[in-house]
Sequence to fold (213 residues):
Amino acid sequence: MLEDLETWLERVYQADGERSTLDALYDEWAQDYDQQLWASGNPYIAIATGYACRHIPDYGARILDAGCGTGNMGQLLHQAGYRNLEGLDPSSGMLAVAERKGFYQQLYPLYLGAEVDLPDESYGAVVAAGVLTHGHAPPESLDGILKLTRRDGIIIFSLSQIAYDDYGFRQKMDELDAAAAWQRLDQSRLFRTYPFSDREDGLRHWVLACRKC
Ligand SMILES: C[S@@+](CC[C@H](N)C(=O)[O-])C[C@H]1O[C@@H](n2cnc3c(N)ncnc32)[C@H](O)[C@@H]1O
Fold:
């Protein structure tokens, strides 16, 4: 099971951000994705849900799950009590699985980027789990996420260490700090993204929670 996950991860990261290749890979992976994700011990969805419960007191808040994939984040948010969930993802295969679960009011076949084709300031919170990493959504996605979030709304995202160090996220986050575009509320410790994998060289992530200023 974990060998399968590692093979898929290699294929996904080898796509090197080429969008149609990446979308096709996720379309294909969608059927087995959940089994492999849960078997991997991946903690970011649970930590992000914990931060949601800490920082989003309104269970009716309109929440966008950006890069929702098959809807695992939506599942945990729904189980925690949130009832006004929407999702976006570019992979039709992943979205089809998310749709069947029935946790989302709306699902959109869209990419995250500096601009997202949804109304500005329309969400009380935006969450993004497993999406802000190299070859996936670029650093400018943080601008897009902030535009979608209403003032004082909450942003919760996982961030890979490699994206922060080598793919422009450090600079983008420094810019947002300097512009007082957000207030940082929480940051997890750096953790192994797939703790049950034997690969010591594997990915590492943080989860952060911020308030839009
Ligand atoms: C590792 S999966 C995470 C899925 C889900 N959030 C979860 O935690 O189970 C990454 C997801 O990001 C999506 N993705 C890739 N590039 C994206 C982009 N630019 N904008 C939004 N989603 C993207 C992929 O289609 C895929 O569903």
User: Anything to note?
Assistant: The CA atoms of residues 184 and 210 lie 4 Å apart. Strands lie at 63-66, 85-88, 106-108, 123-132, 149-160, 182-187, 191-192, 204-212. The first helix runs from residue 2 to 14.
